[in-house]
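Protocol step 4 of 6: record predicted structures for both targets in the notebook before any analysis. Target 1:
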Amino acid sequence: VQLVESGGGLVQPGGSLKLSCTVHGSMIENQNMAWHRQAPGNQRELVATITPHGIPTYVDAVKDRFIISRDNAKKIVYLQMNDLKPEDTARYYCSMIPFWGHGTQVTVSS
């Protein structure tokens, strides 16, 4: 099983990015999926989760700004990130426990 993240980049404060996590080698429709992030010097933290039925949860820091979604047929999980702030700068990882991707870098800076 392989998880591949994409969509990161450099964006100005207030901007948006949409991350994708494509799963290879497994179906995802019965799996809880999640996005995490890790900034330099910090521990990896959970950002958002989504159940097999599409019910999302978010850490307080991203509520009302980030949206997690999934396309089970395409085996992709998305993270739409709006109103980005410098403190959102981190490497973002997708997980389908026990599997992890290698992450995609998001940098928010003017």
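Target 2:
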Amino acid sequence: QVQLVESGGGLVQPGGSLRLSCAASGFTFSRYAMNWYRQAPGKERELVAHITPGNFRQYRDSVKGRFTISRDNAKNTVLLQMNSLQPEDTAVYYCNLRKDEMDYWGKGTQVTVSS
């Protein structure tokens, strides 16, 4: 059974950094692309970053140059390094797997950027 467990969120001041981690299990991690999404209060969930099995990466425009997605296939983990955080990055961040036309989600981790 697929399980995705996020960690690493918290409260940070503008300009600060956080590193999110998603521990994956229940599938052959190295064979699948992985995603990070976020959802701010009152807004739709949006794709933040995407990484393929071959480490091709894509980002939404608003985080390019600030966020870095990476994966560790030995540890079945996908990471999101977030630098130069801004208040508009405040959201619940979710790890996502799309497999066999189904979406799997973790429970999310809260990131709050505030002074």
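Step 5 preliminary note on target 2. The chain has a mean pLDDT of 97. Residues 23 and 77 are 5 Å apart (CA to CA).
Proceed to step 6 after PI sign-off.
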